[in-house]
Write a structure and sequence with these properties.
heterodimer; A: mainly alpha; two-stranded antiparallel ribbon; globular; B: alpha+beta; five-stranded antiparallel sheet; 5 strands; about 60% helix
């Protein structure tokens, strides 16, 4: 009879052999499949003493101060008068061709009254719960560690991306995501680093089930704001539930779909994620004339773009 | 000798187009964004005084970079025609202030981001989309600029962040107000919003 020790050894060895062979086979393929567009890409980094700074310094200090004062004192119409000189016609009537407007239909929002209520609830939850927790968390947990958590959660969600890429008829990206998962789980030490990206420059493709349904022709339906989770619609809500079943974290403790551990992990993932994005919702709200509509439109545009891609 | 020189020149000329990439809209937007990053990363501008100077410098670049009239027209869509000339002027000015108030603060929080400009896509004869990616610690954010040719220079009239177009987002909000209200109501809403800040 084989001892337990032996079994563990053999299993461990075969796993390592499997992963190494996968790596060796996959890496060159992946590198070939996903070349980084370096020849076209151009990077701007900070160089404190460059021409641009000098240029802007030369022309700014006095001039801007004047402009700044002027704008404060003068009335709106007087400020605009400077523009009139170079084009009164700028303010003339427009045609739809000129401004590239397509007659678009509004989004269905039959439960607007209810949705607005939930939006305000979520708004309060953000300011009273998520934000303070995330701020405290950000203060206590160093950025490096938070980055590790981000990579870990991203990596473990690989099944969601692999399966949805497959369902969307993109086997190449499914393979890339699989390769990413294998590299990050091994060289990236269990997904603690996004080594596929950092070491090999491999770019994956995010995919979710709501998007898959959209690609199959499911429409937006109507807008709905879910408590805690935020903007959604029937299609993406179903998508979210299906994706939940594809997350390995769903199955960590019991065979129930929603239990303390998996929901707890989800909450931690959200808090960790929010710690990188504090202030962004505030700006959306600040910039908006009607934050509810702004949020709804942003969600519609964002999801539509993902499905078109 | 002469021949080899000629060949050398030929080779040199053939190499040139490799380095000259991207057209005028691409370069214009890239340069403007570059100037913004330079100002944000300027170590000499610190504290409250530095912040003020930064704000003013950013405003100068924004005025150079954006065409607020085009931006306003495209945001209002055909509703623009319902406004009188005077109302149009006031709208452009108010909208510009709303945008500045909201986004200058946001941009100021950017400190160590890198921006990669990837490519330009022609949308029409006079409009281009210039694509870029902002690399932050928490991930990458694609930002696309749409620029229009105006009197031989390229001016930005829309910014698309992660697929969300700025002018479309505001159009939806304005349409809600203009649906059953006169332009004056929208102007009043904007006046209030701007007034709150000052």
């Amino acid at each position: 009879m084989m001892s337990l020790k032996k079994i563990i050894w053999i299993r461990g060895l075969t796993t390592i052999v499997f992963l190494v062979s996968c790596l060796l086979l996959e890496c060159p393929l992946l590198l070939y499949a996903a070349p980084v567009d370096t020849d076209k890409a151009d990077t701007i980094v900070f160089e404190t003493q460059s021409e641009l700074v000098k240029q802007s310094e030369e022309e700014t200090p006095e001039k801007t101060l004047d402009r700044y004062e002027d704008a404060k004192i003068e009335e709106a119409t007087t400020v605009l008068s400077s523009k009139e000189e170079d084009g009164i016609e700028a303010y003339e009537d427009v045609t739809s061709d000129e401004i590239g407007v397509v007659e678009e239909q509004g989004i269905a929002d039959p439960f607007e009254f209810l949705n607005r209520g939930v939006y305000h609830f979520n708004d309060k939850v953000y300011f009273w719960v998520w934000k303070p927790i995330s701020q405290g968390y950000k203060y206590v947990v160093p950025e490096g560690i938070r980055g590790i958590f981000s990579s870990f959660y991203e990596n473990i969600k690989a099944p969601v991306r692999i399966i949805n890429n497959l369902l969307q008829g993109k086997p190449k990206f499914a393979a890339i995501e699989l390769g990413k998962f294998l590299i990050n789980s091994t060289l990236g030490v269990g997904g603690l680093r996004n080594c596929a990206k950092e070491c090999f420059g491999i770019e994956g493709r995010n995919a979710d089930f709501g998007q898959t349904l959209g690609k199959y022709g499911a429409g937006f339906g109507f807008y709905i704001v879910l408590p805690f989770l935020g903007p959604s619609n029937p299609r993406d809500g179903v998508g979210w539930l299906v994706d939940w079943t594809l997350r390995p974290t769903t199955y960590i403790s019991t065979d129930q779909w929603f239990d303390l551990q998996s929901v707890g992990l989800f909450v931690h993932e959200k808090v960790n994620d929010t710690s990188f994005h504090i202030g962004e919702y505030e700006i959306l709200k600040e910039a908006a004339i009607d934050p509810y509509i702004a949020m709804r439109d942003a969600y519609v545009q964002y999801r539509t773009k993902l499905i078109e891609r | 000798m002469k021949k080899s020189f000629r060949i050398f020149m030929l080779v040199l000329m053939m190499m040139l187009p490799i380095y000259v990439f991207g057209g005028a809209p691409f370069d214009t937007v890239k340069m403007n964004v570059g100037s913004v990053l330079e100002i944000l990363g300027d170590p000499k501008l610190k504290g409250d005084a530095g912040r003020k100077v930064k704000e003013q410098k950013l405003e100068v670049i924004a005025d150079k970079m954006f065409d607020y009239i085009e931006l306003s027209k495209r945001t209002l869509g055909l509703n623009w025609n319902k406004f009188t000339q005077e109302q149009r002027k006031e709208f452009v000015d108010l909208f510009k202030t709303v945008l500045k108030d909201a986004y200058v603060d946001k941009i100021m929080t950017y400190t160590n981001e890198r921006v990669n400009f990837t490519k330009e896509v022609s949308l029409s004869e006079t409009t281009y989309e210039i694509q870029s990616v902002v690399v932050r610690k928490s991930g990458e954010v694609p930002i696309f600029y749409r620029a229009i040719k105006k009197e031989n220079s390229w001016k930005v009239y829309d910014v698309i962040v992660e697929g969300v177009s700025l002018i479309n987002n505001y159009r939806t909000q304005f349409r809600e107000i203009l649906g059953n209200n006169p332009p004056e109501t929208l102007l009043e809403t904007l006046r209030k919003k701007v007034g709150k800040r000052q």
